[in-house]
Specification:
heterodimer; A: 471 residues; alpha+beta; eight-stranded antiparallel β-sheet; six-stranded antiparallel β-sheet; 12 helices; flat; B: 109 residues; mainly alpha; 4 helices
Chain lengths: 471, 109
């Protein structure tokens, strides 16, 4: 069956059908993104924490904006080439458009990767330290582990046969074994070497005998270095994995080592506070200085004086604490050992090396060099934060705060649109030749439809760039 | 490109369109740089920066919609779709605003 009105306009609407369809679809897309933009405003207005401003590297957003604008031009040129029946030019412009989509997604991937490796650590008093984990890892270290208890789940079938929790232990905990062989004595005194098949066999046997656990004793004491995300809970002598496996031993170390690139003290100031002197007194005793050391506190106070002096000069009639820009500039500070850091107020402090690196265990920890977000290489001081001092920590993902939640929701959905648009345009490029020969105007109309969607994707980004990156 | 007028398919018209697209692209690029500069310039308050930045973004979006998406010369029925959608989108933003300035909340708490 031939689809009607693919080239000529329907008499009643005055439009060919696909154009009518794409505009209806775009209207629904306006609603979709409108809802998300509305959510962004809602979250920003209602935030009970300092809304992050200028935390993303604007270069990523800027370059991606230019890439999308250029791709909007190229897709139009491709359509115009088709209208002029120039197949070769059409191919060139379309390849450029799809290459732009690829470039956009590559930049987005690099940007997301930065977020996944950048952490914020909130101390018990509300001070926030931002930076990168040393060697990109934070591990809870257990030594002298003598007992491992595997968990079975009797009657493990969940609702409609779907288990919402892990049905039983698996061999995943063995991944974190760093010292010793996984040789154990089972409850009958037999020696077993654990791997995934042996674990499965032991659990199957226990389930058959309706035993909830399988207790294993290590032949030699073992050592585990475990990612905290894999643990449900732990104390000084025991750690429970999320799948129910428990190990008993001795907690050796759960200190976080961080290459700090920023200190943020804004949460220490009460929301209604208007007395600047009191606010400064509050941040003077911040927990951040206990881990960063007095030299950085001195640098911070100098930085604060500079910022408040600048503000007094430029805004003599305003209450400083009512000005979000001032609060952000004065109560946060970039931290870098590099003299030519990204910001003017970064100064190389005369740091006591032993003090700064006292927590480092291995030689590589003594050279805190890291590619900070922003592309430049800066040296950041390495600090050790004890677990008891940490109130909350996360990488810059939706878990960290609502800003990153809406950032990932908006840019992720937008990214999916870029991928979808690129697939459709690729189809027109690689499978359009036959239609071009038989009915070029039909192909031109198809490309126009795809192009309209592509411009909409560009249009959404035009708002995302300033809202997320610049404001 | 939307209308079935013969002159819209003439090589001269299409060449003019091609040139126009490049010009508009240049304006959009320039506006992107302006958005960046505005964001880091002190206009007295952050609210003003946001307003000016969004005004530039709205101007850019208008150019994309009117020129690149050809709304400038499109049929009336498409405007009707968009007007219908706009009512609901505006409603979403108004609801957000209503929450922000809830008189009951201000009175009771």
């Amino acid at each position: 069956m031939e689809i009607p009105y693919t080239v000529k306009a329907r008499p009643d609407t005055g439009l060919w059908n696909a154009k009518m369809g794409i505009w209806l679809f775009l209207a629904s897309e306006v609603m979709l993104f409108g809802g998300l933009f509305s959510a962004y405003i809602f979250l920003r207005i209602g935030a009970d924490y300092p809304w992050p401003v200028h935390v993303l590297n604007p270069w990523y957003g800027f370059i991606n904006t230019l890439v999308l604008i250029f791709s909007s031009i190229t897709v139009l040129q491709a359509w115009l080439a088709l209208k002029m029946r120039k197949w070769g030019m059409y191919q060139i412009w379309m390849v450029l458009t799809i290459a732009c989509a690829g470039a956009f997604m590559c930049i987005k991937t690099v940007e997301y990767n930065d977020k996944f490796h950048h952490y914020g650590v909130q101390l018990n008093d509300g001070s926030v330290l931002e930076g990168h984990l040393v060697n990109n890892e934070y591990l809870v270290k257990f030594g002298e582990v003598k007992t491992v208890t595997l968990a079975t789940r009797l009657n493990a079938k969940g609702m409609l046969g779907i288990n919402l929790v892990n049905p039983a232990s698996d061999a995943g905990f063995l991944k974190y074994l760093v010292e010793g062989k996984p040789e154990f004595k089972d409850e009958s005194g037999n020696i077993v070497t654990l791997d995934s098949s042996v674990v499965a066999k032991l659990l199957a046997e226990a389930t058959k005998n309706k035993k909830p656990t399988v207790k294993l004793t290590a032949v030699v004491p073992l050592k585990f270095n475990i990612e905290p995300a894999r643990l449900a809970a732990y104390d000084k002598g025991k750690a429970a994995f999320r799948d129910g496996t428990e190990i008993e031993g001795k907690l050796e170390d759960d200190t976080m080592r961080l290459l700090v690139d920023k200190v943020d003290l804004r949460r220490l100031i009460p929301t209604q506070e208007e007395n600047l002197g009191k606010a400064v007194a509050d941040v003077n005793d911040a927990d951040a200085w206990k881990v960063l050391g007095p030299e950085w506190k001195e640098k911070y106070l100098k930085h604060y004086k500079e910022e408040s002096g600048k503000f007094a000069k430029e805004h003599d009639k305003q209450v400083p604490l009512k000005n979000g820009d001032f609060v952000r500039e004065a109560f946060t500070m970039e931290i870098s050992l590099h003299e030519n850091g990204a910001t003017a107020h970064q100064v190389k402090p005369e740091i006591n090396e032993k003090e700064t690196h006292k927590a480092a265990e291995s030689p590589q920890h003594m050279a805190p060099t890291h590619a900070a977000e922003g592309g430049g290489h800066h040296d950041h001081p390495e600090i050790a934060i004890e677990k008891k001092d940490i109130h909350f920590y996360s990488n810059f993902t939706p878990k960290y705060n609502n800003y990153f939640a809406i950032y990932f929701a908006l840019t992720g959905l937008h990214g999916l649109h870029v991928i979808g648009g690129a697939i459709v345009l690729s189809y027109f490029l690689f499978f359009g030749k036959k239609m071009f020969k038989e009915n070029p105007e039909h192909l031109a109309n198809r490309v126009e439809t795809g192009g309209l969607f592509w411009h909409f994707v560009d249009l959404v980004w035009i708002f995302l760039f300033p809202l997320l990156y610049l404001m | 490109m939307s209308h079935e007028h013969q002159d819209h398919d003439s090589p001269e018209y299409l060449k003019k369109q091609s040139l126009l697209v490049w010009k508009i692209g240049g304006v959009l690029g320039f506006c992107t740089i302006a958005t960046w500069l505005v964001a880091f310039h002190d206009f007295g308050s952050h609210g003003r920066n946001i307003t000016i930045g969004l005004m530039i973004a709205a101007f850019k979006a208008s150019l994309v919609a009117l020129i690149f998406m050809h709304l400038k010369s499109e049929r009336g029925i498409i405007y009707k779709f968009l007007a219908f959608t706009l009512v609901f989108v505006t409603g979403l933003f108004v609801l957000t605003y209503l929450h922000w300035s809830d008189p009951l909340k201000d009175y009771l708490f």
